[in-house]
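seq as requested:
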Amino acid sequence: MEFHSRRSGPLSVRRDGERLELDFPAMPGTPCEPPPRLLEGLGATPREVLKARDYMAVFEHEDEVRALAPRMDAIASLDCLGVIATARGRDTDYVMRFFAPRAGIPEDPATGSIQCTLVPYWAARLGRVRLRGRQLSERGGEFTCELRGARVGIAGHVVPYLEGTIEIGS
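struct tokens:
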């Protein structure tokens, strides 16, 4: 299946066994100084901050990401869609959480789109293009991703929530 989006162009989805794989454009982050409201919102100081569509706060340890108790009002005031918090994982390549109160999502349980920023970052640091990530939300999510030049393959198990037929009139 292929979707056409204004922002990202064609986005394809294919079945990979029991998983679905999305093909998205990579969105590498650019290092930046952390805005004070980001630090206030996270209640912690990351070792590094990058910005793409979202701010990405990189921490030293998985436990720091797990322990975050963000202030959503401060995060909602930032000039971005949301905030990715990430660190090297203990039993995965990386872990992440995603906060997007401006979009009405205080904490997203499993976020495919942030892999477009995470995968280029972790691929460069770990020296390989195929990676496994875990979202540390209450529900949680597991991703197998691959950096393919300017694209990112994002695969995971999905839970169907809607089935139907769309008819397009003339």
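The mean pLDDT is 91.
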